[in-house]
Design a protein that fits this description.
Elements: H1 6-26, E1 58-65, E2 70-73, E3 79-82, E4 92-98, E5 101-106, E6 112-115, E7 121-124, E8 132-137, E9 143-152, E10 155-158, E11 182-186
Antiparallel strand pairs: 1-4, 1-11, 2-3, 4-5, 5-8, 6-7, 8-9, 9-10
Length: 188
């Protein structure tokens, strides 16, 4: 007397196929991830092998603003927007450093995105607390990035690119402003 039921087995196989297709469509398990996106850790010379709970939580993305600019950190640390998707300095590594907290680094220039206490956006080679942002998925599907440590009059200050592709002062930003909304787009 066997306990194998072909109907249950077929349903189970369809469920597994659905899960596999969903994961593949989201890009998890993809071999297309840039190899240089796996080797940095934002705290000095420490290597990710020491932090097993953070392994695999690195995303290489273009951050596309709702103002139609890709976030770019140039080789001298200048932060701006560009309309050209193919520029090397606009490929960003987004790494979780805690739950809901990320560090953003340009893969090719090596600069971290940072915000100072006055709300100025800049690039820096040294990781510090100014490089930590709260990442939030908004209702419209875009992400916002607010400084974890710096506030203006009790309100969060957000990463923002204005209509000319220039960073807006964090003191003048709000979560509702479209200039603070970014789509993390897969690197092709």
């Amino acid at each position: 007397m066997g306990c194998w039921d072909p109907h249950i087995s077929g349903t189970f196989r369809l469920s597994l196929l659905f899960v596999w297709l969903t994961i593949s469509a989201l890009g998890h398990g993809s071999t297309a991830v840039q190899p240089e996106c796996k080797h940095w850790w934002p705290r000095g010379d420490r290597h990710i092998q020491s932090y097993h709970h953070l392994q695999g939580d690195v995303r290489c993305r273009h951050l596309y603003s709702s103002t139609h600019y890709f976030l770019l950190i140039s080789g001298n640390g200048k932060v701006e927007g560009t309309r050209q998707k193919e520029r090397l300095n606009n490929i960003m590594e987004i790494r979780s450093v805690n739950v809901g907290i990320v560090a953003i680094r340009s893969v090719h220039s090596g600069f971290y995105l940072a915000m100072n206490r006055k709300g100025k956006i800049y690039g820096t080679k040294m990781y510090s607390r100014s490089c930590e942002f709260k990442e939030r998925i908004e209702e419209n599907g875009y992400n916002t990035y607010a400084s974890l440590h710096w506030y203006h009059e009790g309100r969060p200050m957000f990463l923002s690119l204005n209509g000319r592709g220039l960073p807006r002062q964090g003191t003048k930003t709000r979560r509702q402003h479209l200039s603070t909304h970014f789509l993390p787009m897969l690197v092709s």
